Structure formats: structure tokens, C-alpha cells
Amino acid sequence: MARTDIARRVYNHTWKLDPIVRSLLDTDFYKLLMLQMIWGMYPKVDATFSLINRTTSVRLADEIDEGELREQLDHARTLRFSKKEMIWLGGNNFYGRKQIFEPEFLAWLEGFRLPDYELSKRDGQYELSFSGPWMYTTLWEIPALAIINELRSRAAMRAFGPFALDVLYARAKAKMWAKTERLKALPGIRISDFGTRRRHSFLWQRWCVEALKEGIGEAFTGTSNVLLAMDNDLEALGTNAHELPMVFAALANSEKELKQAPYKVLQDWQRYYGGNLLIVLPDAFGTASFLRDAPDWVADWTGFRPDSAPPIEGGEKILSWWRERGKDPKQKLLIFSDGLEVETIEETYRHFKGKVRMSFGWGTNLTNDFEGCAPTETNSLDAISLVCKVTEANGRPAVKLSDNPAKATGDEKEIQRYLRIFGEKDRVEQLVKV
Amino acid sequence: MARTDIARRVYNHTWKLDPIVRSLLDTDFYKLLMLQMIWGMYPKVDATFSLINRTTSVRLADEIDEGELREQLDHARTLRFSKKEMIWLGGNNFYGRKQIFEPEFLAWLEGFRLPDYELSKRDGQYELSFSGPWMYTTLWEIPALAIINELRSRAAMRAFGPFALDVLYARAKAKMWAKTERLKALPGIRISDFGTRRRHSFLWQRWCVEALKEGIGEAFTGTSNVLLAMDNDLEALGTNAHELPMVFAALANSEKELKQAPYKVLQDWQRYYGGNLLIVLPDAFGTASFLRDAPDWVADWTGFRPDSAPPIEGGEKILSWWRERGKDPKQKLLIFSDGLEVETIEETYRHFKGKVRMSFGWGTNLTNDFEGCAPTETNSLDAISLVCKVTEANGRPAVKLSDNPAKATGDEKEIQRYLRIFGEKDRVEQLVKV
User: What's the gap in Å between the CA of B161 and the closest CA on chain A?
Assistant: First the structure.
């Protein structure tokens, strides 16, 4: 008797749409934390998010079919937070805290849907943007990126037969497992999944998260993906992102206000969150100027997430700064999250071991590392540096300087103005792979 | 750990074409027997086969996408007999006989491919025809019908979700199994699968054949489907079809030749085949006239396959005819194959038990009975009466009268001429369901 399940097979081969994003919880946790603050304090601010492909050699509009892209984006717009999801958001402890989300916020969230998008093609790239109230557009970032990245993988795999696919995933699994074995050898390491936006696919991210859970056990501290956290009883992790200082800076009406913008973010944040959620993201307009001008109370925060400086050099500067302010780095936390590979994690871990608490937010190289896995050579499965950044706030241009000039975004004239105000100290150009 | 096989899933959802016919052996065995004779004796005869949908209420051109139909037909044209298939055709015993196919014929068959087709739409129906040398066009009949029937099922199931499909097939399986239980209760019955052309799908036919094998054991004598016979070590069954007398009649140059055409078929056939392959198909131009004018040697043949008269009435007439010719029907074989349902099989079996050897070639109601199986009411899964008949031979119109006027095919004026020559005795109009 042949073992074909005819019903299942017929179903598999008559699919109309294979949705990439199937839940509004399939996003990064920090988006929800930020959203509560935006909803509470800045409900009238408009913000535009725009897709930026920094890997210009990859012509996304040639690789991905526009019709499929629209279908996926349209499908994401049909999503609502489900009852189960709302109950979980309200009832689960996050960072050891009950009811981190206010009932009024959750009541509003229940009616949330993603707003409309604008999509066109230009020079082989997609111009995709989301305009409207910040408290709506902000939630597009992660699903938009996940959709484009997965559509790209799908397109790349369309030519593969069943065995090529079997081999592809077998190799990727073997590769991933070898990484967990290396990481397991680092006592006391703490690693979490930050790979939602750049993942190869949802199912592959899920596999990686589950593999990490089994492979490194206690060293795996959780995932930024809220849906995966809920489904796998993992900690949902993440704090805040560049969009906060970027919008605040864009809204500043004077040079003084602009220079204060990064600290105003922290003050606002503190009204909502405490403890381990008090993590400073210092590099929006350069870490050096941030530390130089920071008020003393910033040193009371739990930790920093250096996100664009070289990790050891950048981390050491933060340690010095803490020491100058009379703080013992051993009580402090550094969260590394910029383009981590196993090698970087190992080096950084060895360097800082015993000096500071550390945590690694592992992204693209966790959930989208298929290099050398395809049976036939292809670049189409290599991850690209795709971001979705806030580009305007209330009609004014938004800018990010970063510690790495290659990661700067925004209008060039505005970048120059910001550089004059914040300075260029310690900015180091590094190749942005992902 | 989630149990999704990612590679398999990606493969399932990126299919380009799900070919319905994947082997030239996925056809009825009698087509190959006839083909050898056509190739050997009538290689210069041209014959056109045309699709005829007798269920005119079903608008095939509305239900089936033309692009998909062309893709499937084009795919069938890429097929060749594979090495394994050629070896099996040459090495297997058919009807107890070694090397039923001549080496020269097999050598020619190795290069065989299906010829081109003509396809257009008219009044909601497809006009599909195959013109050219008979020894090529003849092999289109079965794959063309199987393709159209399965495309129709696929279209009908497109709207079904995974559970609706699961229920559909579960019910169809339960229904099918109940039939095997009824048939098992008839001692000594002999049943074979004749359902290739009208099947719901290839996989479903395979399931039915395997279910019959397990369900009725020795009573299941084999299948007309050569591929399923090869793959399941079953007997490949079938002898000859109406196209032989129809072409011979069309080529007749006089009334005398026309009246002799049905017997000339048998003479030619006997040059190639013997024993249990000597089965007369008597109804092409009416069984009554066939028996009335038949030479004595026809009574020496192993049996008859009455294919359009009511089975008991029609069978009794053949028994009488044998007795008149001094033959004992108990030594003879009747093969019933016209629109059989379990009820007809039971009645016919009970009526003829002990009087004559019997065999049932079970077609449409074996491999395409989904009535009442769909969770939502639909007619789109009901089998229809679709045939692919020879309509011209060397440019002359071909005609079939049949014992059932509803099954007559061909130009109306020609039908009237044939009726004048062969007579109308015993023709009984019956509803043609399938």
C-alpha cells in the first residue's frame, strides 16, 4: 500500500497563498514595548518608515515578484491580535514583571491593524514605505522585512528539486548544530534569538530557536520573537530601538533640544519600564558624544546595547565610562547584537568574561546562514543588509548617524548637520555584511 | 520540536507542474495490444480521435483552465517509454503468454511519442482532437481522458480546506471499502479495474486498486492500467475496442465490405492473439446484426464483451446464440464492462452464476465515485460521460451505432446509412450516466 496521504497532498498542491506572517505577534518584542510608550506619549506624531536595501548589488525587484509581495503585505494587513494572544500579553510576565502592558493599551491593541503601504519599483529596487501615525506605522518594520526576506528565499529555492532542498536544509541544520556545539563550550554564556527580521523563513527561525533551546539549554535566554516566545514558553526579549532617538531628534526645534533628544528617550522610557529593561542604545548619533554629554543618572541604568561599534573596542569604552562614573562594570550588562557570528561571540565573550555581565542577541547569522548549503552555487540565499528605518517624523527628515558611517541613514545634508552637532569621534567605517 | 519537514514543505509549495500522466504505460493494456496490430497491418491508415462530452450540462471549458490543460497535454508529449518499462513489456507474461509483443514492435515503441493535438473552445466545451497516423493517435485516448477528468477534480477541490479534503477522501474510502465487502460476499466472482480513463485522479485509482487487492483478494483479477499492473505485480487486462471495427467500417468501399468489417477485425486479431484474448466486442454496429451475420468460427472464440446492451438481456442473447451454434456457455466467458455499479454486478452475477463464466471490468464507479463525499454539496466531483472516439479514418467519417442509441457517435447521416445496413434490432435507449 502506497503511503501517500491523498487529502494532504491535494491540499499541499492547491494552495492559494502561503502567508509568511500569520500573527501580529510574529514581531520583535521591543516593538510592543516601544509601541506602548508611543501610544501613551506620542499618539499624534506621524512617522514614515521606509525600506532600505544596503546590499545594492541585490536587485530585489528583479528577484521578488511584485504581485506576491503585495499579496503578502495585504495578508499581513488582515491580521488582528487574537484572543489567545491578547490574554497571553496581559497575563504573561515579561522581564519578571506582571502586567507590563497597561489594560488601556491592550484594549487599544485589540483593534490594531497594520496601516496601508506604498509600493513602487525603481532601478531594480522596491520603494516600500509606511506613512501615518507612528503608533501604527512602527509595527510594519518587522513583518515587512520578514516578508521580503522570505519571499527572496522562496524565489531562490523555486528552482530546487526535492533532493536539492533536502540537502540544503540538511546542511543548514548541520551548520547550525555545529555552532551550538561551539557556543555550549563557553561557560555561563547567554544567548538569545534576535533573528526575526532577517530570517530565511518563519519555519527555519522556529527550527533554529528550538535547536538552540535543545542545544545550549540554560545558556539560551529567549527570543525577541513574541510569537515564538509564546508558543515555546521562552522569554520574550528586547528593549528599545533607534527609532525613538531618531524621531525625537527630528522633532527637536533647536540645537539644544536635538542634543538632548537621546536622553529624553531614556527619561520617557523610564516612566514605563524599569530593571533589566533599562538598557541604553547609545549609538544613534555616535556613542562617543552620547557618553560625553550623558547626565549622571544614565550610569544608573542596567546596561548598554552597543549596536554598531566594533564590540570589544566599543564595549571597553562603555566600561571606562562606567568606571569614571564610579560604577562597577561587573554589576552592569552589555548586550551585543550587531552582526554577530560565532567567532565574534567567542572573542567578545573571552575578552569581557569576568569584567562585565554579557548577553548576545544573535540575529541574521542565526536565522539566515545558508552560505555553502545550496547544492548548486547561488548568492540568492545569502542574507542581505535590509532595514526598514524611520525616515520622517511629522514631515521632517529623520537621521541615524551610528558608530559605523556605513550604517548611517537619512538625507545627506541632514547627516552633515547632525555630525556638526554631535561630532564624529570614534566613528569607524566597517563593512556591513548583514 | 515541531515536526514540519521544511525541505518537503518548501518543495510541496513551490511546485511548477503536477503532471497527471507521468508514464506512457499509464494507459489501458488493450491500447497496446491494438497498437501492435495497427502498427503491423495498418501503418498507413490515418485516424482522428476527438473528445466527446456526452454530459453536455457540464461546461468543461468553464471548469478547466485552458493553460493548465495545455501544460498537461504538453507534458504527456514529452514522455517516452522508459528502459524499465520496455524491459517489462518484453519480459512479462501477458494472458499466460510470453513475448506477446514482437521485438520489432517493441523496437519501434521505444521511439514512440504522442503526436500533436488541436485544442479550442466552443460553447463552453473543449474541442480536442488528435490527427495523424492511427498508430500514433490511438495512444492519446486514455491519457487525454485521464488528464481532463483529473483537471476537473482538481478544479473542484481547489476551494476545499485541509479538513474538507480529509473528510472527502475518508468518505470515499469508506464508500469504496463497503463495496469491496459486498463483492467479497459473491463466491467465485472475478473483478478487474477498468477505471483509468474516468478516474478521479491517478493516486485515487492506485488507492482503489490496492484496496481491491487487499479487500477481495483472489477475486480481483487485475487492472487494465499497465503502469499499475507493473508496479503492483497485477495482471494487465483488456483485449480490443470499438475503434477497430469503426476504422475498418469507415475504410470499407462497398456495402458488402462494410457488413464484413466487424468480422474482418476478428480475423486480423486472431493473427496476433489467441486464448483468452479472443474476446468479441459485438456491439459496434448492434449486437443483433453482429450475431445474425456472424460466421460460424466466431462461436469458437473464448468469449464476448457486451458493452452497451442491458447486461442480463444482452448476455442471454449471446448465450442463446452460443447454444444455437452447439457451444456450451459454461465453457464460454462474458466480460461485463458497461457502467457497472455494485448493484448491477450483484444482479448480473446472480443471474448468470452457473450458466457461463463471467468477469466484470469495473470502471468509473470504481475509480471515480465521490457522490455524497464532499462536505459541501457539489456536482463538480460527479463523474461525467466523457469519451475520446475515432471520428475519421483516412478522411472518411467513422461511426459507432452501439446497442444503446445514446452511445452512438458520428455524423448523423452516416449513422442513418449504417442503421439501414446493419438494422436496428434490439437497440434499447438507456440513460448514459457514465
Answer: 7
Per-residue pLDDT tens over the stretch B344-371: 999 999 999 999 999 999 999 999 999 9
| pLDDT tens-digit map of A398-434 | 999 999 999 999 999 999 999 999 999 988 888 888 7
Residue in A396, A398, A401, A391 with CA at minimum distance from that of residue A429: A401
Nearest chain B residue to A169 by CA: give it. Answer: B7
This complex has an ipTM of: 0.79
Other residues' Cβ atoms within 10 Å of the Cβ of residue B254: 8
User: Which CATH number is correct for A4-420, 3.20.140.10, 3.30.450.180, 3.30.420.40, 3.40.50.450?
Assistant: 3.20.140.10
Given strand B220-223, what is the order of strands in its sheet?
B220-223, B191-193, B357-362, B333-336, B303-304, B279-280
Q: What is the pLDDT of residues A230-259, one digit of tens each?
A: 999 999 999 999 999 999 999 999 999 999
Chain B closest-CA separation from residue A97 CA (Å):
28
DSSP A229-249: HHHHT--B-----THHHHHHH
Q: Which amino acid is at A183?
A: L
d(CA B32, CA B25): 9
Neighbours of B307 (CB within 10 A): 24
The full set of domain ranges for chain A reads 4-420
DSSP class of residue B254 equals S
Label residue B293 exposed, middle or buried (CB < 10 Å: 0-12, 13-18, 19+): middle
Between chains, do A8 and B161 touch, taking CB under 8 Å as contact? no
Grid coordinates representing B1 are: 520540536
DSSP annotation of B151 reads H
- Provide the Cα torsion B126, B127, B132, B133; round to 10°: 70
Q: In B174-211, which positions are buried (b, 16+ CB within 10 angstroms) versus exposed (e)?
A: eebeebbeebeebeebbbbbbbbbbbbbbbbbbbbbbb
Instruction: Report yes or no: A63 and A384 within 8 Å, Cβ to Cβ.
Output: no
Q: Residue B235: CB partners within 8 Å, gap ≥ 6?
A: B94, B95, B192, B221, B222, B223, B229
Distance CA B36, CA B38 (A): 6
* A168: closest CA of chain B, how far (Å): 8
Residue of B nearest to A2 (CA): B207
As a whole number of angstroms, the distance between CA B201 and CA B148 comes to: 10
Q: Which residues of A touch B (CB under 8 A)?
A: 1-2, 4, 6-16, 18, 154, 157-158, 160-162, 165-166, 168-170, 201, 203-204, 206-207, 210, 214
The alpha helices in A303-382, defined as continuous H runs, are: 311-324, 342-352, 364-367
